[in-house]
# Entry
Amino acid sequence: YEYGKNNQRNSINDFNLNFPLTKEWEFETYGDITTDLIQVDGTLYFGSADNFLYAVNSETGKLVWKKAAQNEIGSTPSYYKGAVYFGSDDNGVYALNATNGETLWVSATDNSVMTSPLVYNGTVYVSSTDQTMYALNATDGELIWGTRLEIVYVLVSVIFELLLLSLAQPK
# Structure
């Protein structure tokens, strides 16, 4: 598994680092990279403070596509069945075609989405700073349910078929 690709959210992978490390390529955005990177099938996906989600070829460093949100992207993207899912400070949860960046759907929350969506069995689980945990249909973005948690940050993972919530309230 590659980081961010599995639902346990761990960094288990099947590649080895060879030292010393050397720079193979460089890629420039117009803002800080504000998310972790995920790699799926030779493409890196990541968000930036310049409001774009980027897809970059991991071998060459060449831009595959980029897609603008209406505000900064601080939500590490997730991948599921050919789509990339992420949230933005524009209150949206986005689903994009992983190959070409085409928008599949955008679903609105009542505030910023800074946590990484988890997609499991066709459902996107994500929390918003509106203190709500959302479950959205992964195909069309329709709301399945939303529940207020009175907590700001909710990280979601799946272990042994159980949906686990890690809750955090900023001081």
Remarks:
- DSSP finds no helices and 14 strands in the chain.
- Residues 113 and 128 are 5 Å apart (CA to CA).
- The first strand starts at residue 38 and ends at 40.
- The two ends are 34 Å apart (CA to CA).
